[in-house]
Amino acid sequence: MKTCFTFLSLLLLAVFTKQATSQPYKIQQPAPGVEIISQGVIDKFTPYTFCSEPPRIKAMSQLAPAKLPFNINDIRVKVTQRGALVDIPLDDDEHLYGFGLQIGTFNQRGLRKKPIVNDNPLNDVGYTHGPTTFYVSNKGYGILINTTRYTTFYCGTTAMNISGKPDEKTTYGGNSVLELYSHKSAVSHYVEADVPGAKGIEVFVFSGPDILTALQRYNLFSGGGTMPALWGLGVKYRVKADFKQDEVKKMANYFRQNQIPCDVIGLEPKWQTTAYSCSYVWNPEYFPSPQHLIDSMKLQGFHLNLWEHAFVNPKSPLYKPLKERSGNYLVWNGLVPDFADTSAAGTFARYHENTFVKEGISGFKLDECDNSNLGSGHAVWSFPEHSEFPSGLSGEQMHQVFGLLYQKTIYDIYKKRNTRTYLDVRASSSFASPYPASLYSDTYDHQEYIGMIVNSGFAGMLWSPEVRESTSIADLMRRSQTAVLSAQTLFNSWYLTNPPWLQIKIDENNHNQLMENAKQVEADIRKLLNFRMSLVPYLYNAFADYHFKGIPPFRALVMDYPTDKNTFNIADEYMIGKGILAAPLTEKQNERKVYLPNGNWYDYNTGKKFTGGQTYTIATSFTELPVFVKEGTILPLAKPVENVSPNTKFEITCCVYGDKARGTLFEDDGETFDLEQGNYNSLTLTYDGKKGNLTRSGSFKNHRYQIKNWEVIK
Amino acid sequence: MKTCFTFLSLLLLAVFTKQATSQPYKIQQPAPGVEIISQGVIDKFTPYTFCSEPPRIKAMSQLAPAKLPFNINDIRVKVTQRGALVDIPLDDDEHLYGFGLQIGTFNQRGLRKKPIVNDNPLNDVGYTHGPTTFYVSNKGYGILINTTRYTTFYCGTTAMNISGKPDEKTTYGGNSVLELYSHKSAVSHYVEADVPGAKGIEVFVFSGPDILTALQRYNLFSGGGTMPALWGLGVKYRVKADFKQDEVKKMANYFRQNQIPCDVIGLEPKWQTTAYSCSYVWNPEYFPSPQHLIDSMKLQGFHLNLWEHAFVNPKSPLYKPLKERSGNYLVWNGLVPDFADTSAAGTFARYHENTFVKEGISGFKLDECDNSNLGSGHAVWSFPEHSEFPSGLSGEQMHQVFGLLYQKTIYDIYKKRNTRTYLDVRASSSFASPYPASLYSDTYDHQEYIGMIVNSGFAGMLWSPEVRESTSIADLMRRSQTAVLSAQTLFNSWYLTNPPWLQIKIDENNHNQLMENAKQVEADIRKLLNFRMSLVPYLYNAFADYHFKGIPPFRALVMDYPTDKNTFNIADEYMIGKGILAAPLTEKQNERKVYLPNGNWYDYNTGKKFTGGQTYTIATSFTELPVFVKEGTILPLAKPVENVSPNTKFEITCCVYGDKARGTLFEDDGETFDLEQGNYNSLTLTYDGKKGNLTRSGSFKNHRYQIKNWEVIK
Asked: Domain DUF5110: where (chains A, B) (predicted)?
């Protein structure tokens, strides 16, 4: 009897092995709810090998018990002459999100996406500043193909020619294009990931039970979401590229004299002696005394941020030490440092630390670390995909992680010095959650910029919908609103003499011909920026949730309401922290349709209460913010400050939405990594229907929040 | 002394070997002026392995002696873990053309191009219906990377990090974007071709001495340019997709009753029982008696053409025999036949021959043999790149040659039956010159359509700028002019009940609400189409030059004037045959700038003479054709016929441009391959300043041309 059973088992195993061509593969479990399937020869460098921070195992173990909607063994992995192919089961009613900072699409079901790094990701092919080979499903799990190689995902679009009878269910049978395209049903029950060139592959499976938990696991496994310096949540203003030292000072004075909030001033290319490629040397003609500038800025409460890219000019002191540790191609005649080589990264970091960070530079803008525009044959720059790097990475692979490694290199400087920062960066990748960097783009479609806030939450990334020029006052105001409701409020005036709110037209602006109503527009912008400053404590708390729990501070509605099918395709609304829903408008609208999920919601501007599960048309003026607050929320709003210093005390008004409500705040020094040692406080705000109460737990001594007021909105 | 010299040589050799990592490679010379460099393990299938026709060695040996502007050994080939990399020398003042039927760019110098097959090739990344890994240089040579793998060309955009001092000449040193992009000089002295996945590579080098000779060698090596059926040079009209048999007949009658030239009527999807995917079975509801239709059409002088694509529906008689000989993925639930497998191609061909060709179907429209739109994540169809085919081709490789193999499969049917055809096709590839197929596209930008005529000549391809809907009468007329001046004059009315010249608006058209001036517009169109019919003998002669000498019938000015730098970037004028220069207008223009190269030229419409080497502004009405005739040309224009039958006699007026002039005509049966056995006549027309003379040589008995008249234009 026993023999017979074993024989049958062997037979079944043989059948099984034939079907799943390349099973069995290895499965490891490196953290609770995370499994790694691996097959074949894995590349020496994968996105995961570059992780700066260890996984937050403890936090992960506190999440809901791991659950997958399919048997993990149903994932098929095949390694062929072409590369690796991974098939992941897909249900008929499943919806997919992710692939990094996607610009043109949201729900990726039914699409083919190739998430590769690109500086001008037009169309919807998958190109982006921040590609990830990672997606999540509304069924509650995430899949990451751990490779730096260009990977194409077919999200349920491929049907196989299998033996036996044809599948009648998926027969189209139409004989016109109209019939063809009206046929929307699924054609495949797999997502397929095609990785040409790979000799083996790792698949990371992040379990739910729900989409948010899967993302929390991803972010925590990456080392936890970033915790930017507290001042990073204020306003950043980048001055005109050809400003000289005195003009920068003048601009700084303008902000303080006019009580317009600003925490960071950014300098653009000409601070260097040569920028394309970079010397990383102060330009004495423009900045004769940089240390004086840094110090005087600091006195006025400004942090200074320097533009740069990573291509090293022959005139740079970094050229000689990096020459042999760079790729075999040049960009703008500059070296491409091999940041995967710790020695090259160390050389780059040491120079930056000694020359800039020690002197008080608070951050950098890492430009052009993406690849040049693949959407047009013109403007070709960056290194070719066939480049070879000393580490062994190819150009293709380096493209996918160049921005990531650049962030890591700069982040490591600040981490070592126990100082937090907040960077601008134009490329990122998988496992980037711990980096305090906000992505930006030269593209400028406002609706796409809103969509990128929504998508950023699926990617462990932050996105900065920067304000540059505007076609109208409406455009300026709506863009500024979106900037206020994003991970970084940034005005990038690199080609404007005056702030855009004094003159929206570029030419007039640069001839100091201000708009007639400049002062009125300035006042309106001030209102918006003051709202941003009011929101800083709430945002900071949302970032603490990102850091310690992996909850994205900005996230699509489907993440919080995964069973509400109305949210599956909403790409223009998003949650900020626990209780705010934002629904930005563009210059084309003075009102818009807003879907509010189940529960009750309050219009922040009018206090009007709305029943959820429905769509409303809501008008919002230029000086209001298009946000809704969830019933049961205590929104702790600060009295606006012009900038955040280490000793800033926030005077808080607790806005209570509903009969009973709750809120939290996070308190620490705001600028070191001491929070990792537990040196912080958690504040809980409660309102029981009659009065508000604050409890504070933790060991951080220097209290930052003073509750001044409770305001109940019913 | 001798020892010393040898030692030095060895040293030099060592240095050389180090630099050119993978030399020496093998060099073969398969034909005069063609060399093949080969290195590593060559793929079993390359574009060249699919060539239907042998190279025309004799014709090649009659070309000018081969000459290359560089030493062939300076081409570098490297095979690495990533794939193959080929570096081809590039001069500072060199200009490059090709990469197939490029849609957005012309002079490819300074660009990165990835010529891969795609159905909606937006932007300029290199995607096209007809990619080739082939380019030519104005210095007089052509390079073809003989691979079906996706290949990226960096046309002088990559600079290497080599040992020694940095190259001061290529230092940018600017520190602003403005300075950066104003810097236009070459950064590299190589074109680099990156072929990921290849384990070896073949490089075909086509020598000049000039660009046209290099192209002639390419076309002749491919088997010679195609010779379409003579009737193919007339007008093709595709009827509405849901037309039934009687409606098709009615439309045919309309043409004959109104004396509007038409040679071919095309049926669209609904002639089949199922089209997405295809059954290849007549739809009895729409076409109850196809044989009757074919025969009655023939009586009226029409050829019938059938739309189809290659994805085989489960309901098709071809399904069962092809099931095991198809790729492992389905498209629209249809099989993807492995056309690289001769048995699969044979099955497909036999069915088509027996069911359609034997019954009198004169040609096919091969739709959707390109890949779905990579420029958008939406509308995903076609097989994935990781598909596997029984022949061993991957999906990526199959995409690059699917349209080519489809053409070959259909062409072989007709060739076997000694009957010529003229096909429509939506994808092609390298070495396609012998196929009688004109490419078409769903894109519809008129300026791009003109540019594609110009680029087609660099690719061994023909392009059909079809007329569909129009935004205005001007748009209709200008598009029709371009169609008349192209390889195929095609009106594709697949969604129009009436011809577009009776109603340009789609809705009104389909409700039979004709324009008030419909008859006038019809008369204007008739004029243009009559001009086309007048031009048929001249065009046919140009095709004979394509077939026997490899001279593209439609070609960029730079091909005929390679030393005139004014032609290097002209993408909107082209030569037709020996003596006509076309400069089409779009709906936006009533006049345009026309550059006329050295020599004297005549405006065809006014007879006005122009001195070349200059640019003129020329107005052209809707019913004129924007063409110029080169001094010394005899243009043999026929009295228009409504269609071309085997017995059509053309009454020719010889238009003589200049004091002394010359022209040629080609005479054969127009519909068989007997011309390959020399069964044709060459006619030479000369004008000595006083009178014209015709000489005829050859063995073809049935004279087709009757010279009626000599008209001298001075």
From this structure: 652-707
